[in-house]
Amino acid sequence: MDSTALGPAFFAADTRQVARALLGAELVAGPVVLRVAETEAYRAGDTACHAHRGWTPRNAPMWGPPGVAYVYLCYGLHVLLNLVSEPEGTPACVLVRAAVPVAGLETVRARRGGRLDLDGPGKVGAALGLRVADSGAALGGAGPVAVRRGRAVPDAEVVVGPRIGIEAADAADRALPWNWRWVGPEGLRGRGKGALRGKPLVSPVPGR
DNA sequence: ACAAGGATCCTCT
DNA sequence: GAGGATCCTTGTT
């Protein structure tokens, strides 16, 4: 048992809070451990969310209990990991958009063509060795992925901005600042598609 | 049974 | 910066 494991109680909260709090957390899949460096929130009533057209077999996990993986195939070739949030019955999830590998580097390289950069959701899914069949699995030691509390990321190292790749959504939803990036020295350090978007979550405190 | 369209990534230029 | 890869899911005949 791992006392730092994040379970249903953590994920049952507001998706935006969960997305922010996941920065610095660790995704564990066998020998591979990744530190979460970028997240996005997808919520009920949000036209960018797969749930907005109603329940389907694919997006069903979002309606289920929190603390479950919602995994789907994007563009026919990329496996994307989402973590189901909010209480059961409220469809919502957090997309893990980027991460930094901290263990199992050889496995990551083997799955990523020799690379260790994980600045993109398809790269994260590949590094973890996820498959679409993993969708709906509970997060934890028994499932394909476990999540545990890593290190706390201070607001000064977080940049918020609009979500990536949701051109089909309504303008208002496209503008929502529901993308969180960890830009500190141990985070993304400016890499990734959202590198030039967004603004600091908290501006530096003026000098005394 | 069919067609369209993706919450992307990689390889060029 | 542009384009191709690649195939499942979904809504429609």
Determine the mean pLDDT: 92
Number of helix segments?
5
Oligomer: single chain
Q: Outline, from the CA principal axes?
A: globular
Radius of gyration: 16 Å
Task: Give the proportion of residues in helices.
Answer: 10-25%
Backbone structural class: alpha+beta
Key attributes of the depicted protein:
208 residues; alpha+beta; nine-stranded antiparallel beta sheet; 15% helix; 25% strand; globular; DNA-binding
Short description:
The chain is of the alpha+beta class and 208 residues long. The chain has helices spanning 8-11, 15-22, 105-111, 121-128, 171-175, and strands at residues 26-29, 32-42, 69-74, 78-84, 93-103, 146-148, 158-161, 179-182, 199-200.
Describe the overall structure.
- Helices cover 15% and strands 25% of the residues.
- It is α+β, with helices and mostly antiparallel strands and 208 residues long.
- Strands 1, 2, 3, 4, 5, 6, 7, 8 and 9 form a 9-stranded antiparallel sheet that branches.
- A hairpin with a 3-residue loop joins strand 3 and strand 4.
- The longest helix is centred in the first third of the chain and has 8 residues, at 15-22.
- Residues 204-208 have low confidence and may be disordered.
- The protein binds a DNA duplex (13 and 13 nucleotides) through residues 40, 42, 48-50, 53, 56-58, 72-78, 80, 82, 95, 97, 113, 120-123, 126, 132, 163-166, 168-169, 193.
